[in-house]
Amino acid sequence: MSIFHLYTAVFGVFESFLQRSAHLGFAMILSFAIYKPSKRLNQTKIPWYDVLAILMTVGIFIYFAINAENIASRMSYVEELSQLQIVIGMIAGLLLLEVTRRVVGTALMLIVVTCLAYALWGQYIPGFLSHKDFTFMWIIDHLFYTTGGVFSIPLGVSATFIFIFVFFGKFLEITGAGKFFIDLSVAAMGKYRGGPAKTAIFASSTMGTISGSAVANTVTTGAFTIPMMKKTGYNKEFAGAVESVSSSGGQIMPPIMGASAFIIASYVGVPYTAVALAGIIPALLYYLCLFFQVDLRAKRKGLRGLRKDELPNLKRVLIEGYLFFIPLLVIVFFLMNGNSPMRAGLYAIVSVILVASLKSSTRLSLKKIIDGLDLGARAVLETAIACGAAGMVIGVLSLTGLGLKFSGLILTLAGGSLFLTLIFTMISSIILGMGLPTVAAYIVQVALTVPALIELGVAPLAAHMFVFYFAIISAITPPVSLAAFAAAGIAGSDPMRTGITALRLGIAAFIVPFIFVYGPSILLIGDALTIIITLVTAILGIIAMAAAAEGWVFRHAVWYERLMLFLGAVSLVYTGVISDLLGLGFLLIVFVLQKYTLNGNFKEIKKAQ
């Protein structure tokens, strides 16, 4: 699988149906070999039924490969499928359902099954949910013999851009770049007030580029940062929450964002660089809010940074690992110069190997390179399978028109209100994200809710980014906050309390998406002056929200001060001159109150009320 994708990265991709079917075929074969049918089984050998599943998968995708040109050029729905093609499509669907259950989870499999049942029998449902009668052959044709179902855009992106960037991350990981970024974060931030928590923020935001997974990032960096935070005085729930929120933000941090960002680029029809550039300011606002919360908590608790003897030497860390910045700069350079993400990722992988070869401690042996190929293939399995399964959902929604019907229902329930439509979209995105990987949750939302947002005048990029953000933050949203639960295991804290604390620390993730809907200039859309004004007011609003959440500015903030901070934050986030002036007014009042009552005068004001 790895060699196939590296070959296509070097010599060019095959015709879209062949490229996508080969990608999914390799992913399914490896998944049947690696993932057991049940976690309770302790088998060391591949059972006979999995061998049979692998052989059937090989046969099916060899058929697709041999006939790719004919399948791509045939007139779908007009030329009838042969009995063999129908049987192949049916078996491929059953195998994909089973591998989805093993790799991605039961939730996505059940969603796919529900959609298939709707496609088969939805004509018997009364009311607006009813659709025309589709034959079994028509459904198989649409899902497996066109690029509108399983082999649609998401799988195409996974088969090209996503795979090569996952490879890049894994090669960077085996060279020891992860340790360098953690050491650099400790050396740079550890000495300051609340240093360990700030270290977690910087380390996790950079490690997100390598791991691409909120839970994996949490476990990797959390094993180091969480004990360090607890040691310096942060309670265990707070320590776990900081790490989980920091790690969850890795998918929104350019230059290498989550897998869904590449799919956004394909759906919106813009270069990936446009998505990455649009994501810069929102990501900075997300981490800025978290940074101020941990800083204010440290100030409130009187927490200090690490002692000098506990810190790595910054100069020595940079001397030992500065070369790890080169691959990241290579990606940025080639992307900004108009190269495709696949080509930029390939050059970055080559640069990793070359950079690593300059030092004996990081030099990649043949075994390490093989390990990198193995890790890369394993890491992309979930995304590839999720994209294939989500493609079945997309296929049913487009075939039956259910996606447009759902969008119409949302618009009707919201009464045409953009705000209510955003709220409904936010809730559905979070719920989907609780049971599905980010990429699958995002893809489903593209078909269900994004059309409603665009119809109400939301910029396409902003609409896609909106659902992308909320699909991500399900990792820190109780009751199923997987990243927070992973951090709780390391911190030894109560999982639900950690999740609730993470929800508060990640408050910016609930605000920032609304900012770029109401003020798309924050996505670098529009003229320079508007972008600057929106950025300044958004920063002030985010800082005010952090202070309101933590209940501290110069001293403890009483309830009405926190309320004014919150109202000021919301006013500044909502674009417009009047709302900005109102927000600044609220912040000015709180500033005066906090300054005036800082030196023991608080009781006098309280008596005067």
From TrEMBL:
Keywords annotated in UniProt: Membrane, Transmembrane, Transmembrane helix
Domain TRAP C4-dicarboxylate transport system permease DctM subunit: 92-525
Pfam families: DctM
Membrane-spanning parts: 17-35, 47-66, 81-97, 104-124, 144-169, 276-296, 317-336, 379-400, 406-427, 434-454, 466-490, 502-525, 531-553, 565-593
InterPro entries to which the protein is assigned, alphabetical: DctM (IPR010656), TRAP_DctM-Dct_fused (IPR011853)
NCBIfam families in the record: TRAP_fused
PANTHER family: BLL3936 PROTEIN
UniProt protein name: TRAP C4-dicarboxylate transport system permease DctM subunit domain-containing protein
Gene source species: Halobacillus mangrovi
